[in-house]
Specification:
Length: 209
């Protein structure tokens, strides 16, 4: 194997490695930011529902007095359920499941997790209500379908074309780069390392030797 061929293969391998690392980094950052934004939205939704409830301890009578407002939230498409301090579900807009607890079943700690409810994957937030006068907890959820589709689209996108990147990388080594996408390795390796300098066509003025 000639030196030029080895340098070409090394350059192509380095470009592939850099692009793979770049794709992994972009996917990780995008996933982290998208899910962080989703979790912030779930927490804001939970706080909004709690703030809409009248003052008092969470029990069946308080929920009954707030049922029209809670049903309006449910009609708007919000997925949530409210528990009292013992963990009993007082109100739930989840279809197909009345028991959407975090892993381990702890009601005292805030947790974000995923669970399949009514044939759809949900990202859920369990949040204890930090108030001695209220007690209880709330779970809010949102389907992960749109988030997963956004991440899939990011993974399928190619921010740089590898054939152009390979040609730019090969140019300092081969002098002229890759002449076409279908060129074989042998064709590339047989190119001159330094292309011949074109002869000057300028005419010298008369009277000069």
């Amino acid at each position: 194997m000639s030196l030029r061929l080895r340098m070409t293969l090394l350059c192509v391998a380095l470009v592939a490695l850099v692009l793979a690392g770049f794709a992994i980094t972009v996917n990780f950052l995008a996933s982290t930011r998208i899910y962080a934004s989703l979790d912030d939205g779930l927490e804001a939704q939970a706080n909004s529902i709690i703030a809409s409830l009248p003052a008092g301890r969470l029990d069946e009578s308080l929920i009954e007095s707030s049922r029209p407002a809670l049903e309006a939230e449910e009609a708007a498409g919000l997925l949530f359920q409210i528990r009292d301090s013992s963990g009993q579900v007082l109100y739930s807009s989840f279809r197909g499941s009345q028991d959407v607890l975090p892993p381990g079943g702890s009601l005292d700690q805030q947790a974000v997790y995923e669970r399949k409810v009514a044939q759809q994957q949900l990202r859920l937030l369990h949040m204890p209500i930090d108030s001695a006068s209220r007690g209880g907890s709330i779970e809010v959820g949102r389907p992960t379908k749109e988030t997963d589709e956004a991440l899939t689209e990011i993974r399928l996108q190619r921010p740089y074309r590898t054939d152009r990147a390979d040609a730019r990388c090969a140019q300092p080594v081969l002098g002229r780069g890759v002449p076409r996408a279908s060129a074989s390795i042998d064709d590339i390796a047989n190119q001159p390392l330094y292309p011949p300098r074109p002869r000057s066509t300028r005419r010298r003025p008369r009277g000069l030797s």
